[in-house]
Amino acid sequence: MINIAILGFGVVGSGTCDVLSNNAEIIKKRIGDEIYVKKILDLRDFPDSPYKDRVTHDADEVFGDPDIKVAVETIGGARVAYDYTKRALSAGISVVTSNKELVSTHGVELMKLACDNGCVYLFEAAVGGGIPIIRPLYKCLAANNIVKIAGIVNGTTNYILSSMKNSGISYEGALKKAQQKGYAEQDPTADCEGIDAQRKISILSSIVMDGKYCDPSKIHAEGISKLTTEDIALARAIGCELKLIAYFGNNGDGTASAFVAPHFVDKACMLSDVEGVFNAVLVEGDYLGQAVFYGRGAGSYPTASAVAGDVIEACVNGSVDMKTRLWDDSVSVFRDYDDIKSDFVVYSEDDDMDLSAVLPSAQAVENASGVNAVIVNDITEAELKSKLEGKSGIEYKHYLK
Amino acid sequence: MINIAILGFGVVGSGTCDVLSNNAEIIKKRIGDEIYVKKILDLRDFPDSPYKDRVTHDADEVFGDPDIKVAVETIGGARVAYDYTKRALSAGISVVTSNKELVSTHGVELMKLACDNGCVYLFEAAVGGGIPIIRPLYKCLAANNIVKIAGIVNGTTNYILSSMKNSGISYEGALKKAQQKGYAEQDPTADCEGIDAQRKISILSSIVMDGKYCDPSKIHAEGISKLTTEDIALARAIGCELKLIAYFGNNGDGTASAFVAPHFVDKACMLSDVEGVFNAVLVEGDYLGQAVFYGRGAGSYPTASAVAGDVIEACVNGSVDMKTRLWDDSVSVFRDYDDIKSDFVVYSEDDDMDLSAVLPSAQAVENASGVNAVIVNDITEAELKSKLEGKSGIEYKHYLK
User: Fold this and answer.
1) B200 is an active site residue
2) B136 to chain A: which residues are within 8 Å by CB?
3) Which of A114, A302, A355, B228 has a CA positioned 20 to 30 A from the CA of residue B244?
């Protein structure tokens, strides 16, 4: 029997307990041993939970227990979770987490600590919820130079944009609906201003930049709170869908370009079809070409599915390849947003506005709706802004083909 | 330096050499060691290849070389490849392959042989080409009971169906075009009659049935050679696309239902959008929900990307979790096709034909094209056939929502 502990018995922590106990028989068959949740560390009591007898408020009971091999950190945030993760790893207890904030801010230190103590720090659930993406990047695509990643990695914002499209309601109305359904927090800032997506793309970037740490605070992030139903209708009129995209591009010179922003996503791109709380990550490798990973990016059980998969890995595999996963924060990786070239859709409600006179390199967007729009490739937002200076009634969005 | 050998220097074998040598620097950075192709075993000479000096015709030079840690088997088929794989594994040399025929017929024996000799037998490239699917099933989704898999796993047939749709040409014409482009073999039987897909779904089934071996010869397989452009047009008229689907369903009683057949795939299902040589696999887990893995399912470089990823794993990880991957052929797993319940679209060119009189449990398919069609759920093909006996002008296809 392998004993584990859950740190933080919230939505994901209790979901992980459910997966591990309801599928205990299958898991035992797969790994040849039983996984038992011995301790649950939380400030609260859970008198109605079937696991109530295992709840403790005393961290020493967990970190001082030599029987415990793996701890599931589902506390969230980067304060208590950070302290507990350090304590666990220092004691040689592997830690598995869904905590993107902690991984993206302290991943360098925590992975090194795991490696030094012969255990692992795994975080498949930190990006894309239940969708396998971290392990495929580390393992299956390990022979590729990853040149591009474009992801819908935040279910809350994708749900809001889908609602706005399907019900014709405003951002505020759609946010309220999302909050009522439990898809958005009462303070929606981290999701809606792109901060959650910023953390997730920083984690993916650090992996594919071979462990050069990609600080999330260096990633330009723009959210969806200023988007309107008109923006969505306009995107659709020219054969696109409006999506919040977390983007990573490998510049090939040791630097990367990453940002989070609303994009007009061409209908030819599979990301355009991703609706509601679903997530999808498009990855382009130099030998793989493009692949897409699609599924439920949040929610108790899908996230718990990924956490529990990592628990199994931590139980089976020990620290065998932790050293190939380490990150290093000695080098600055990201190009300044002002220097990042991107593609844009530029459009005007004024049919007489000659956009190709303003932007000579632009290509007109053929569309049956008669929308006056062009695509400009390979230009920084700063350059584009300067070209549009003084012209009124022209708007633009990032474009993803 | 880690020395490896390539067995069979064809499309995938030479592609693997290219990936490993062109991305040698990245790979070295990732694993902290260099991977070197020391020997290439092939009957032919390759005087124009940059690797020509490493080519040998003598198998003893490979299997008797104590320096060689990993062998890449890209010979194909289940004869020479089988002998060489056994020789390598018996010598403690890990084997990595894209050979679905060999894995699906002799996987039980070969994985056990690897385990017994402290090495690994890995086959990420055997299903879905470059798409990560084997490792995600074994690892990321290890805590789930996988209830369903539906995959477009054969690029040749998907290319042919896309060509028929987009160019309005017949099956024969589309096959010829595919052969000219190198997407179909001169003898297209294995692809077009569903045998390749049968092997691939057997491999996925064996994994998710926790290693109960799923013999491909027990899987009902129907190909695409009888499909017409009318079938495709009809599918589209009722909001579907015609696709060759490899299906697995877990019956929950220790048995599985698997088959390969053309399906009307509802436009709401992401598989309906998969065009040309691309592959996609939809996986449903009890906690994960649905996830889709999409990408290039064949071709030299995408397949080599997956092979090279496994080479890296074999170099880094040794045999640490091979024992959790073993298959066992002691139990018969598959339900007879005649007893498998499925969903069908039933349609008639005769508008006056009252399909709901013939099939009282059926639901009419609302469609703007006025096609006379119904959906029947949860019925065996044998039952459906008996209900339609004696009625003329009625056709049906499997239906995937």
Assistant:
1) yes
2) 132, 135-136, 140
3) A302
Secondary structure (DSSP) of B228-280: -HHHHHHHHHTTEEEEEEEEEEE-SSS-EEEEEEEEEEETTSGGGG--TTEEE
Q: B142 contacts in A (CB within 8 Å)? A: 27, 30-31, 308-309, 312-313
With an 8 Å Cβ cutoff, are B141 and A309 in contact?
A: yes
Domains present along chain B, CATH in parentheses: 2-130+301-324 (3.40.50.720), 135-296 (3.30.360.10), 340-400 (3.30.70)
Amino acid (one-letter) located at A398: H
Confidence at residue B322, expressed as pLDDT on a 0 to 100 scale? 87
- Residues A41-64: tens digit of each pLDDT: 999 999 999 999 999 999 999 999
Structure tokens at B173: 């014409």
For A115, A281, A398, B368, the CA distances from A247, given in Å and listed in that order, are 30, 10, 11, 39
Q: Which residues of chain A have pLDDT under 70?
A: 318
Report pLDDT digits (tens) over A61-102. 999 999 999 999 999 999 999 999 999 999 999 999 999 999
* Helix or strand (DSSP H, E) at A19: helix A11-22
CA distances to A237, B47, B58, B119 from B50, in Å: 52, 8, 20, 30
The better pLDDT of the pair B305, B32 is held by: B305
In this prediction, residues B168-191 reach a mean pLDDT of 96
Q: Which of B20, B23, B291 sits opposite A130 (nearest CB)?
A: B291
**Which pLDDT band, with edges at 50, 70 and 90, does B382 fall under?**
very high
Question: Could you say which of A200, A212, A243, A387 is catalytic?
Answer: A200
Structural element, H or E, at residue B219: none
How far, in Å, CA of B65 to CA of B91, rounded?
A: 9
Nearest CA in chain A to B141: A309
Chain A closest-CA separation from residue B195 CA (Å)? 25
Q: Which of A143, A291, A305 sits opposite B144 (nearest CB)?
A: A305
pTM of the model: 0.96
ipTM of the complex: 0.96
Instruction: Retrieve residue B286's tokens.
Output: 């009890």
| B127 contacts B153 by C-beta, under 8 angstroms | yes
Q: Which residues of A touch B289 (CB under 8 A)?
A: 130, 295-296, 301-302
Q: pLDDT at position A332, please? A: 80
Out of A132, A140, A289, whose CB is closest to B309?
Answer: A140
